[in-house]
Amino acid sequence: DGCGHTVLGPESGTLASINYPQTSPNSTVCEWEIRVKPGQRIQLKFGDFDIDDSDSCHSSYLRVHNGIGPTRAEIGKYCGFGFQMDGLITSKSNEVTVQFMSGIHTSGRGFLAVYSTTDKSDLITCLDNASHFTEPEFNKYCPAGCVIPFADISGTIPHGYRDSSSLCMAGVHAGVVSNTLGGQINVVISKGITHYEGSLANNVTSKVGPLSTSLFTFKTSGCYGTLGMESGVIPDTQITASSVLERSNETGQVNIWKPENARLKRVSPPWAASISDEHQWLQIDLNKEKRITGIITTGSTLAEYDYYVSAYKILYSDDAQKWTVYRESGMDKDKIFQGNTESYKEVRNNFIPPIIARFIRIKPLKWHQKIAMKVELLGCQFSIGRAPKVTMRPPPPQNKNNAKNDDFSEDFVHSVKTSLQTDKTTFTPEIKNTTVTPSVTKDVALAAVLVPVLVMVFTTLILILVCAWHWRNRKKKMEGTYDLPYWDRAGWWKGMKQFFPTKSAEHEETPVRYSSSEISHLRPREVPTMLQTESAEYAQPLVGGIVGTLHQRSTFKPEEGKEASYADLDPYNSPIQEVYHAYAEPLPITGPEYATPIIMDMSGHPSTPLGVPSISTFKAAGNQAPPLVGMHSKLLSRTDSTSSARVLYDTPKGQPGPSATEELVYQVPQSMAHSTGSKDE
To answer: Where would I find the LCCL domain in this sequence (predicted)?
Structure first.
């Protein structure tokens, strides 16, 4: 009658004295016989030891034996308050006997111990928590049976667990290890949070916890994504049930609690069976074989209907014909899962080992008022690569000796089915709302080729568009009103022209710089020579009847204190040969805002009589400038004047000038048709 919490697994387990961690009762005894696989040895570790030693371990003690039965040999006898045993007690065989004796005492909690096979060198006890370790990440082995009523945990996945929580108990709650089997945990320590949530999972209740300096989480395989009930990846036609409840509400409307309503977090009535008995079931077709690692359930989320399932079994199948009840590895009994304790809170249960199947059937065993539930399955795709081709041959004739072998083969295949299936190959499932990265398949290899190609194509298109946009903008900047030759746009050609020697006014163009004061003291025939011989930083005029090229700078440069004036020769009064004048081309957009005068060589024109008036191509605003001192030529200048806003144009000699009230008449060369009219510039 002295045995307390006890779980003896095939490779590990936990044992404690009665009433632990409270004071153990007087005059009690308990004996545990532990066995593991032949060829292995057992190691024993104490998490807590507090046994009265007032009589030197005579009436109260803990004794460990190597072996079981009459042939067992004592390894050691232990007692003491707060006894610390740093090392492990190791057996010499695969069997150990642990004996606890409690005599007359007034205090002492008893003990809590764990065991495992000796290959688990990183064994910890159920009482160890994250604060006992300083490493930011570590691996430990949790024994079976660490779900103990006297230990607390706070937190949940994926947010993490408070550092005061039992590592192994939190591992069971997170679904990393099984309470009946134990297992390896990979722990990561990080900064704590202000609040830890509570939940019920795998028959472990996590409590709400306050702020802590650190927390811990577990590294897992990642196969815990949702498989499509909530998201709708699983269609309604693949969710079926044994029966459906139909009920009329207060308004007389009939509500059908259909199986497709059994989707977690959907705002609707759940699935409910019309008859509540142990023959009811809810079935989900995943369309392909999946690795199923867990299930989340709720009852009716409608406040007026407090329906839920408190216990159930899980069955699985590949063809929906032959069903297998889920059992934990090494167990000979069907596993019964704890369901909901209230209708609206979610409860999670994990499958260790996972189920490999296409069809899942949930069979309620206990319920509150009526069978009603909503469900979500957790897991990921199942793909282990293609199996090699198998050549089918006719089976050999059977004999009596093969009968037992066939039975063994069936059992072996059944056990392997719950963990892996190497004779079937599945492809990437249609999983949405999952946090799991699928395994590498042919699609991944194809994507590895297509993704770089698509990236290169899109990059090339972007570069082409950018270049086209840049070329278009550059072309707009270079375009003017008139198209200039390419050789005249080149900057080097402009610079080189300034160093060429001046040959003649007819064939060579030279930069010209002049001012109105210099021109007024020259005779008409000296003006071209003066303009040709003086080098300046402005563009060349048009010479010899040829439309010359224009530089990017203006031929007009204003002098300080007064406006620059425009001047031109009078082609009608000039005795030299008359030629048709050419018009200056527009300046490039980058040049200064000054006009380019037009210089005409009159050597090619026949001389005209002095009485013939000259025509100027320049329009003067305001008063006319005084004529230049010279023979038969006249320059018109423009000055700013506020005295007259009327525009005057030069008129031939001998004809009356326009009056103040008459409109001005434009005159054109004799070779062109005369046109008159009223025009404004």
So the answer is: 120-216
Cβ–Cβ < 8 Å for 308, 270: no
Pairing of strands 199-201, 347-368: parallel
| CA–centroid distance for 49 within its chain | 52
Q: Please count the other Cβ atoms lying within 10 Å of the Cβ belonging to residue 659.
A: 7
Token pair recorded at residue 549: 């090229």
Q: How far apart are CA 614 and CA 602, in angstroms?
A: 13
CA atoms within 13 A on the CB side of 356: 18
What phi and psi values does residue 121 have, to the nearest 5 degrees?
-75, -20
Cis peptide before 25 (omega within 30 of 0): no
Sequence-ordered list of residues with C-beta below 8 angstroms from that of 480, at least 6 positions apart, any chain: 586, 588, 589
| Domains along the sequence of the chain with CATH | 3-117 (2.60.120.290), 130-218 (2.170.130.20), 225-381 (2.60.120.260)
Placement of tokens 């005492």 in the chain: 105
* 435: its two tokens: 């946090």
Q: Is residue 462 classed as helix, strand or coil in its secondary structure?
A: helix
Q: How many CB atoms lie within 10 A of CB 510?
A: 20
pLDDT digits (tens, 9 = 90+) for 55-107: 888 889 999 999 999 999 999 999 888 777 778 999 999 999 999 999 888 88
Q: Residue 48: name the closest of 1, 94, 4, 92 by CA.
A: 4
The CA distance from 592 to 675, in Å, is: 34
Q: Which amino acid is at 92?
A: K
**Each residue's pLDDT tens digit, 347-389:** 999 999 999 999 999 999 999 999 999 999 999 998 765 444 3
**Euclidean distance between CA atoms 355 and 333, whole angstroms:** 16
Statement: the pTM of the whole predicted model exceeds 0.85: no
Contact 625, 638 (CB under 8 A): yes
Helices (H), 525-572: 526-533
Please, which residues have CB within 8 angstroms of residue 660's CB and are 6 or more apart in sequence?
646
Closest CA to 602 of 581, 578, 634: 578
Tokens in use for 609?
A: 């009589």
With tokens 């050691």, the residue in question is: 76
Give the C-alpha distances (Å, rounded to integers) separating 307 from 201, 252, 256, 345: 19, 21, 15, 12
